Amino acid sequence: MSYRIPHRCPVCSHELIITKLACTHCPTKVEGEFSSCKFCRLPTEQLEFVEAFIRCRGNIKEVEKVLGISYPTVRSRLDSVIEALGYGPDKAGIHTPEESERRQEILIALERGELSAQEAARQLRGRR
């Protein structure tokens, strides 16, 4: 069985690095410090959205149909993925990975109902 690589330490929540790679065919193993790609760090829900978005060639109407969600939800999820990848609405278009992660945590908490819309907005504004 294959599992997704965890990117956060389950004890302290800091970033994990990949330190060992092994060949699936021969006994070769490579050790060192390796980073994963930005897309690999996305939560499963965002990866599924990106896959649907690409499969639909970016056609938002098609994404709506495939995922059974509304236009505003598609836009919201797309914005969420864009920010999680480190690109934001600011003029520079770039957030630090920590800022992007924090913003993503706020949005997830909002979606789960752990934060009110007002509190999420306050936290997002305070983090800019």
Automatic annotation (TrEMBL):
The organism of origin for this protein: Acididesulfobacillus acetoxydans
Protein name: DUF2089 domain-containing protein
Coiled coil spans: none
Cited InterPro entries: DUF2089 (IPR018658), DUF2089_Zn_ribbon (IPR053957), PucR_C-HTH_sf (IPR042070)
DUF2089 domain boundaries: 9-40, 42-87
Any Pfam family the entry gives: Zn_ribbon_DUF2089
